[in-house]
Design brief:
MetI-like fold; 276 residues
Length: 276
Protein backbone atom coordinates (compact mmCIF):
# COMPACT_ATOMS: atom_id res chain seq x y z
CA UNK A 1 0.00 0.00 0.00
CA UNK A 2 2.87 2.38 0.78
CA UNK A 3 4.30 1.72 -2.67
CA UNK A 4 0.95 2.46 -4.36
CA UNK A 5 0.49 5.66 -2.35
CA UNK A 6 4.00 6.77 -3.28
CA UNK A 7 3.14 6.26 -6.94
CA UNK A 8 -0.24 7.97 -6.88
CA UNK A 9 1.12 10.92 -4.92
CA UNK A 10 2.48 12.16 -8.23
CA UNK A 11 -0.40 13.65 -10.28
CA UNK A 12 1.37 12.79 -13.55
CA UNK A 13 1.48 9.12 -12.55
CA UNK A 14 -2.21 9.20 -11.61
CA UNK A 15 -3.05 10.50 -15.08
CA UNK A 16 -0.95 7.72 -16.63
CA UNK A 17 -2.74 5.07 -14.55
CA UNK A 18 -6.13 6.44 -15.63
CA UNK A 19 -5.12 6.43 -19.30
CA UNK A 20 -3.89 2.82 -19.07
CA UNK A 21 -7.05 1.72 -17.24
CA UNK A 22 -9.24 3.34 -19.90
CA UNK A 23 -7.42 1.47 -22.68
CA UNK A 24 -7.45 -1.84 -20.80
CA UNK A 25 -11.16 -1.54 -19.99
CA UNK A 26 -11.89 -0.64 -23.59
CA UNK A 27 -10.05 -3.77 -24.73
CA UNK A 28 -11.68 -6.07 -22.16
CA UNK A 29 -15.19 -4.72 -22.75
CA UNK A 30 -14.85 -4.50 -26.53
CA UNK A 31 -17.59 -7.14 -27.19
CA UNK A 32 -20.08 -5.02 -25.22
CA UNK A 33 -18.84 -1.53 -26.11
CA UNK A 34 -18.46 -2.10 -29.85
CA UNK A 35 -21.53 -0.76 -31.67
CA UNK A 36 -20.79 -2.99 -34.69
CA UNK A 37 -18.78 -6.03 -35.69
CA UNK A 38 -15.22 -4.79 -36.43
CA UNK A 39 -14.98 -7.02 -39.52
CA UNK A 40 -18.48 -6.33 -40.89
CA UNK A 41 -18.33 -4.58 -44.27
CA UNK A 42 -20.96 -2.32 -45.77
CA UNK A 43 -20.13 -0.69 -49.09
CA UNK A 44 -23.14 1.62 -48.73
CA UNK A 45 -21.65 3.05 -45.51
CA UNK A 46 -18.04 3.42 -46.72
CA UNK A 47 -16.12 6.55 -45.65
CA UNK A 48 -18.92 7.88 -43.46
CA UNK A 49 -17.67 10.88 -41.40
CA UNK A 50 -17.78 10.76 -37.60
CA UNK A 51 -21.20 11.21 -36.08
CA UNK A 52 -24.61 9.62 -36.10
CA UNK A 53 -24.69 5.84 -36.21
CA UNK A 54 -20.90 5.65 -36.62
CA UNK A 55 -19.44 7.73 -33.81
CA UNK A 56 -15.90 7.75 -35.23
CA UNK A 57 -16.82 7.20 -38.87
CA UNK A 58 -16.22 4.24 -41.19
CA UNK A 59 -13.30 3.09 -43.34
CA UNK A 60 -13.05 2.31 -47.06
CA UNK A 61 -14.88 -1.01 -46.55
CA UNK A 62 -17.67 0.51 -44.47
CA UNK A 63 -16.33 -0.98 -41.20
CA UNK A 64 -16.96 0.92 -37.98
CA UNK A 65 -13.78 2.70 -36.85
CA UNK A 66 -14.76 2.76 -33.15
CA UNK A 67 -15.29 -1.00 -33.08
CA UNK A 68 -11.95 -1.61 -34.80
CA UNK A 69 -10.12 0.65 -32.36
CA UNK A 70 -11.62 -1.17 -29.37
CA UNK A 71 -10.74 -4.59 -30.75
CA UNK A 72 -7.35 -3.34 -31.96
CA UNK A 73 -6.50 -2.41 -28.37
CA UNK A 74 -6.55 -6.11 -27.55
CA UNK A 75 -3.87 -6.84 -30.15
CA UNK A 76 -1.62 -4.03 -28.95
CA UNK A 77 -1.95 -5.00 -25.28
CA UNK A 78 -1.48 -8.74 -25.89
CA UNK A 79 1.64 -8.18 -27.98
CA UNK A 80 3.11 -5.63 -25.56
CA UNK A 81 2.49 -7.66 -22.39
CA UNK A 82 3.51 -11.02 -23.88
CA UNK A 83 6.66 -9.83 -25.64
CA UNK A 84 7.96 -7.75 -22.74
CA UNK A 85 7.19 -10.51 -20.23
CA UNK A 86 9.20 -12.94 -22.37
CA UNK A 87 12.02 -10.40 -22.68
CA UNK A 88 12.08 -9.85 -18.91
CA UNK A 89 12.19 -13.60 -18.26
CA UNK A 90 14.86 -14.40 -20.85
CA UNK A 91 16.92 -11.21 -20.77
CA UNK A 92 16.74 -10.84 -17.01
CA UNK A 93 17.88 -14.43 -16.48
CA UNK A 94 20.75 -14.00 -18.93
CA UNK A 95 21.89 -10.81 -17.26
CA UNK A 96 21.68 -12.26 -13.74
CA UNK A 97 23.58 -15.43 -14.62
CA UNK A 98 26.17 -13.50 -16.61
CA UNK A 99 26.83 -10.97 -13.85
CA UNK A 100 26.90 -13.65 -11.16
CA UNK A 101 29.28 -15.92 -13.10
CA UNK A 102 31.62 -13.14 -14.20
CA UNK A 103 34.90 -13.79 -15.98
CA UNK A 104 35.10 -14.78 -19.64
CA UNK A 105 31.54 -16.06 -19.67
CA UNK A 106 30.26 -12.64 -18.66
CA UNK A 107 32.47 -10.96 -21.27
CA UNK A 108 31.23 -13.26 -24.05
CA UNK A 109 27.56 -12.88 -23.14
CA UNK A 110 27.79 -9.08 -22.95
CA UNK A 111 29.52 -8.94 -26.32
CA UNK A 112 26.60 -10.85 -27.82
CA UNK A 113 24.19 -8.43 -26.13
CA UNK A 114 26.17 -5.48 -27.51
CA UNK A 115 25.78 -6.89 -31.01
CA UNK A 116 22.01 -7.09 -30.50
CA UNK A 117 21.96 -3.55 -29.11
CA UNK A 118 23.76 -2.27 -32.20
CA UNK A 119 20.57 -2.85 -34.23
CA UNK A 120 17.73 -0.32 -33.76
CA UNK A 121 14.75 -2.09 -32.25
CA UNK A 122 12.51 -1.40 -35.25
CA UNK A 123 15.11 -2.65 -37.74
CA UNK A 124 15.75 -5.83 -35.75
CA UNK A 125 12.02 -6.45 -35.42
CA UNK A 126 11.55 -5.84 -39.14
CA UNK A 127 14.26 -8.38 -40.00
CA UNK A 128 12.75 -11.05 -37.75
CA UNK A 129 9.18 -10.54 -38.99
CA UNK A 130 10.35 -10.45 -42.61
CA UNK A 131 12.03 -13.83 -42.08
CA UNK A 132 9.23 -15.47 -40.10
CA UNK A 133 6.27 -13.83 -41.81
CA UNK A 134 3.53 -11.50 -40.51
CA UNK A 135 1.60 -13.16 -37.68
CA UNK A 136 0.73 -12.47 -34.06
CA UNK A 137 3.21 -14.98 -32.63
CA UNK A 138 5.98 -13.76 -34.93
CA UNK A 139 5.40 -10.18 -33.81
CA UNK A 140 5.73 -11.27 -30.18
CA UNK A 141 8.98 -13.10 -30.97
CA UNK A 142 10.38 -10.15 -32.93
CA UNK A 143 9.63 -7.55 -30.25
CA UNK A 144 10.85 -9.84 -27.46
CA UNK A 145 14.17 -10.30 -29.28
CA UNK A 146 14.65 -6.54 -29.54
CA UNK A 147 14.16 -6.16 -25.77
CA UNK A 148 16.27 -9.07 -24.47
CA UNK A 149 19.59 -7.21 -24.59
CA UNK A 150 18.41 -4.12 -22.65
CA UNK A 151 16.90 -6.30 -19.92
CA UNK A 152 20.08 -8.37 -19.74
CA UNK A 153 22.06 -5.17 -19.21
CA UNK A 154 19.69 -3.73 -16.61
CA UNK A 155 19.68 -7.02 -14.64
CA UNK A 156 23.44 -7.59 -14.83
CA UNK A 157 24.55 -4.22 -13.46
CA UNK A 158 23.16 -4.56 -9.88
CA UNK A 159 24.13 -8.24 -9.69
CA UNK A 160 27.81 -7.28 -10.07
CA UNK A 161 27.64 -5.33 -6.80
CA UNK A 162 25.11 -7.50 -4.97
CA UNK A 163 27.16 -10.69 -5.35
CA UNK A 164 29.85 -9.10 -3.17
CA UNK A 165 27.42 -8.23 -0.38
CA UNK A 166 27.56 -9.94 3.01
CA UNK A 167 24.17 -11.68 2.75
CA UNK A 168 25.24 -13.37 -0.51
CA UNK A 169 28.54 -14.46 1.00
CA UNK A 170 26.64 -15.80 4.00
CA UNK A 171 24.37 -17.83 1.72
CA UNK A 172 27.35 -19.35 -0.01
CA UNK A 173 28.96 -20.17 3.35
CA UNK A 174 25.77 -21.96 4.41
CA UNK A 175 25.97 -24.13 1.31
CA UNK A 176 23.10 -22.60 -0.68
CA UNK A 177 23.10 -23.48 -4.36
CA UNK A 178 23.92 -20.80 -6.93
CA UNK A 179 20.34 -20.95 -8.22
CA UNK A 180 18.96 -20.28 -4.73
CA UNK A 181 21.35 -17.39 -4.17
CA UNK A 182 20.41 -15.87 -7.52
CA UNK A 183 16.65 -16.27 -7.54
CA UNK A 184 15.85 -16.15 -3.81
CA UNK A 185 18.34 -13.62 -2.46
CA UNK A 186 19.50 -11.47 -5.39
CA UNK A 187 16.40 -11.35 -7.61
CA UNK A 188 14.15 -9.52 -5.09
CA UNK A 189 16.76 -6.75 -4.83
CA UNK A 190 16.79 -6.04 -8.58
CA UNK A 191 13.13 -6.72 -9.36
CA UNK A 192 12.03 -3.10 -9.00
CA UNK A 193 14.55 -1.86 -11.57
CA UNK A 194 13.50 -4.57 -14.03
CA UNK A 195 9.79 -3.76 -13.58
CA UNK A 196 10.40 -0.04 -14.16
CA UNK A 197 12.26 -0.92 -17.34
CA UNK A 198 9.44 -3.26 -18.31
CA UNK A 199 6.75 -0.59 -18.08
CA UNK A 200 8.80 1.77 -20.24
CA UNK A 201 9.56 -0.94 -22.80
CA UNK A 202 5.89 -1.83 -23.07
CA UNK A 203 5.39 1.61 -24.62
CA UNK A 204 8.22 0.81 -27.04
CA UNK A 205 6.56 -2.51 -27.86
CA UNK A 206 3.28 -0.74 -28.71
CA UNK A 207 5.10 1.67 -31.02
CA UNK A 208 7.09 -1.14 -32.67
CA UNK A 209 3.96 -3.22 -33.28
CA UNK A 210 2.17 -0.21 -34.78
CA UNK A 211 5.17 0.58 -37.00
CA UNK A 212 5.43 -2.99 -38.28
CA UNK A 213 1.68 -3.11 -38.93
CA UNK A 214 1.86 0.21 -40.75
CA UNK A 215 4.35 -1.19 -43.27
CA UNK A 216 2.35 -4.38 -43.74
CA UNK A 217 4.31 -6.73 -41.46
CA UNK A 218 1.79 -6.91 -38.65
CA UNK A 219 -1.15 -9.17 -37.96
CA UNK A 220 -2.88 -10.15 -41.19
CA UNK A 221 -6.17 -8.43 -42.17
CA UNK A 222 -9.02 -8.33 -41.45
CA UNK A 223 -7.88 -8.46 -37.80
CA UNK A 224 -7.97 -4.83 -36.61
CA UNK A 225 -4.69 -3.29 -35.46
CA UNK A 226 -3.97 0.37 -34.80
CA UNK A 227 -0.95 0.45 -37.11
CA UNK A 228 -2.87 -1.31 -39.86
CA UNK A 229 -5.74 1.17 -39.52
CA UNK A 230 -3.30 4.07 -39.91
CA UNK A 231 -1.85 2.43 -43.01
CA UNK A 232 -5.32 2.02 -44.54
CA UNK A 233 -6.19 5.60 -43.68
CA UNK A 234 -2.99 6.99 -45.17
CA UNK A 235 -4.31 6.42 -48.69
CA UNK A 236 -7.32 8.63 -47.88
CA UNK A 237 -5.60 11.13 -45.60
CA UNK A 238 -7.03 14.14 -47.46
CA UNK A 239 -10.57 12.85 -48.02
CA UNK A 240 -11.04 10.93 -44.76
CA UNK A 241 -8.43 12.08 -42.21
CA UNK A 242 -10.31 10.42 -39.32
CA UNK A 243 -9.14 7.02 -40.54
CA UNK A 244 -5.61 7.85 -39.36
CA UNK A 245 -6.37 10.38 -36.63
CA UNK A 246 -8.34 8.07 -34.31
CA UNK A 247 -5.93 5.10 -34.24
CA UNK A 248 -3.04 7.57 -33.97
CA UNK A 249 -4.67 9.12 -30.90
CA UNK A 250 -5.24 5.65 -29.44
CA UNK A 251 -1.53 4.85 -29.80
CA UNK A 252 -0.64 8.23 -28.27
CA UNK A 253 -2.90 7.68 -25.25
CA UNK A 254 -1.54 4.20 -24.49
CA UNK A 255 2.13 5.09 -25.02
CA UNK A 256 1.77 8.28 -22.97
CA UNK A 257 0.03 6.41 -20.16
CA UNK A 258 2.68 3.68 -20.04
CA UNK A 259 5.50 6.23 -19.97
CA UNK A 260 3.82 8.13 -17.15
CA UNK A 261 3.36 4.92 -15.15
CA UNK A 262 7.00 4.01 -15.79
CA UNK A 263 8.15 7.38 -14.47
CA UNK A 264 5.98 6.89 -11.39
CA UNK A 265 7.43 3.42 -10.77
CA UNK A 266 10.94 4.83 -11.08
CA UNK A 267 10.22 7.63 -8.61
CA UNK A 268 8.55 5.25 -6.13
CA UNK A 269 11.40 2.73 -6.18
CA UNK A 270 14.33 5.15 -6.27
CA UNK A 271 15.37 5.98 -2.67
CA UNK A 272 16.89 9.25 -3.85
CA UNK A 273 13.51 10.38 -5.21
CA UNK A 274 11.23 8.76 -2.65
CA UNK A 275 11.26 11.71 -0.33
CA UNK A 276 10.87 14.42 -2.97
Amino acid sequence: MRFIRAMLRNPTTSVGVVLCIVVVLGALLAPWLSPHDPAEQSILDRLQPPGGEFLLGTDTFGRDVLARILWGARISLVIAVTSISAAILIGGSIGMVSGYAGGRFDLLVMQVMDVMLSFPSLILGLIVVALLGPALLNLVIAIALTAIAPFARIARAPVLSLKQRAFVEAGRALGFSHARVLFVHILPNILSEVLVMGSLWMATAVRTEASLSFIGLGVKPPTPTWGGMMRDGFENILDAPWLSIWPGLAILVLVLGLNMVGDGLRDATDPKLAGT
